[in-house]
Specification:
- It is built from nine helices and 19 strands.
- Strand 14 and strand 15 form a beta hairpin.
- With about 375 residues, the protein is an alpha/beta fold.
- The radius of gyration is 21 Å and the shape is globular.
Length: about 375
């Protein structure tokens, strides 16, 4: 039986653990429950099409990750976990001025080209809405000049998806230990994880420790160069209209999501110099609210609920680090997702589990950890 220790129970670590346990592996997940875990704060958009263009390889990866979500949600439902937060609410990419209005045509053309290559799943058929049609169909967006409508884009609550993955992982036999862990390294090979509960020997160790991954992997001489990027996300309640709002994204700005109970989520800041301070700041909240009011003026009447803060694991080149760690036998990475974690991490965990189990897996170029340099041995 394959023995695996996963360090980190965020959405990436929970996905790896679930798929390994489902396949019959002996899995232990070690997590010290630090404040600021990105998954616990995240509510995000599940879409393969964004405002900014990406490479062909990245687009292919995003479509695969979105398709995986559909399969994962089916597994949740089959397991009796119907309240999974995933819903295809659709997305509006809204323009607030004439320059942005001109850019909408580019987004529409690019979306059309992508679905011709990859299919409409997770996107739908793009539709360009002018001001009058946008106001007629989505009256809360009274100030937007136009928008691209992508009717099959979905949204999720990250902590709900993670909790369901943990539940299914436990059912498969995975053990979860709350403790700080450290890697045990012998002759350039990771042989297990030592923590307060004892030594867990392993054939494979997965570092899915989010923003703390670099410090953890340092024992091997390998640095994945992951740093904390703070994200603040505001939650409001807008009685009589909050639940009907689709995902709304704006150029160079923010996004809005709606959940049952008239909950509106406004996200998110991207603070690269926050360090490990998982704190709410007046400036961050003020920026989010001002931009949100400019898109949906009625939000100024909303009831205050909470602010969630997460420290995203950001990589130096902005792309995830998934796969075997260069030069360190037995060590695998599932980190560096930055703001893409809710979309890419579940799929990445599935790929990683397959590779650990000995299947032939080619990690997509945009996220392959092998692009980093191996440690230099003296």
């Amino acid at each position: 039986m394959t023995r695996v220790v996963v360090i980190g129970s965020g959405i990436a670590g929970a996905s790896v653990a679930y798929h390994l346990a489902k396949a019959g592996s002996d899995v232990v997940v070690v997590d010290d429950a630090r404040p600021g875990q990105a998954t616990a704060a995240g509510a995000g958009i599940i879409t393969p099409v964004g405002i900014q263009p990406v490479s062909a390889a990245k687009s292919e990866l995003m479509f695969a990750a979105v398709a995986h979500y559909v399969r994962l949600v089916e597994q949740f439902v089959e397991g009796g976990l119907a309240e999974h937060s995933y819903a295809a609410t659709g997305e509006l990419i809204a323009a607030r001025d004439n320059d942005e209005l001109r850019r909408l045509a580019e987004v529409t053309d690019r979306a059309g080209s992508l679905i011709r290559e990859h299919g409409t799943a997770g996107v739908g058929s793009p539709e360009l809405l002018d001001h009058s049609e946008l106001r007629r169909r989505f009256p809360l967006l009274s100030t937007a000049l136009g928008a691209v409508w992508l009717p099959e884009v979905a949204r999720v609550d990250g902590r709900v998806v993670r909790d369901h993955l943990v539940t299914l992982g436990r059912r498969g036999g995975a053990r979860f230990v709350e403790s700080t862990g450290e890697l045990v390294v012998v002759d350039s090979r990771v042989t297990g994880v030592r923590c307060a509960a004892g030594l867990f020997e392993a054939d494979h160790v997965v570092v899915a420790a989010g923003a703390w991954s670099s410090a953890l992997a340092g024992a091997t001489g390998f640095d994945p160069q992951v740093y904390p990027q703070r994200g603040q996300i505001v939650h409001l309640r807008l009685p009589g209209g909050g639940s009907d709002l689709p995902v709304v994204s704006v150029f160079g700005g923010i996004y809005l999501l709606s959940f049952p109970g008239d909950r509106i989520v406004i996200g998110a800041t991207r603070e690269d110099h926050s360090g490990y301070a998982a704190s709410v700041t007046a400036g961050g909240v003020d920026m989010l609210l001002r931009k949100a009011f400019g898109v949906v003026p009625r939000l100024s009447e909303a009831e205050w609920l909470e602010v969630r803060v997460g420290l995203r694991p950001a990589s130096r080149d902005g792309e995830p680090l998934v796969g075997p760690a260069p030069g360190v036998e037995g060590l695998w990475l599932a980190t560096g997702f930055g703001p893409q974690g809710l979309t890419l991490a579940p799929y990445s965990g599935w790929l990683l589990a397959r590779a650990i189990l000995g299947e032939s897996v080619e990690f997509p170029v945009p996220m392959a950890a092998t692009r980093l340099a191996a440690p230099v041995r003296s």
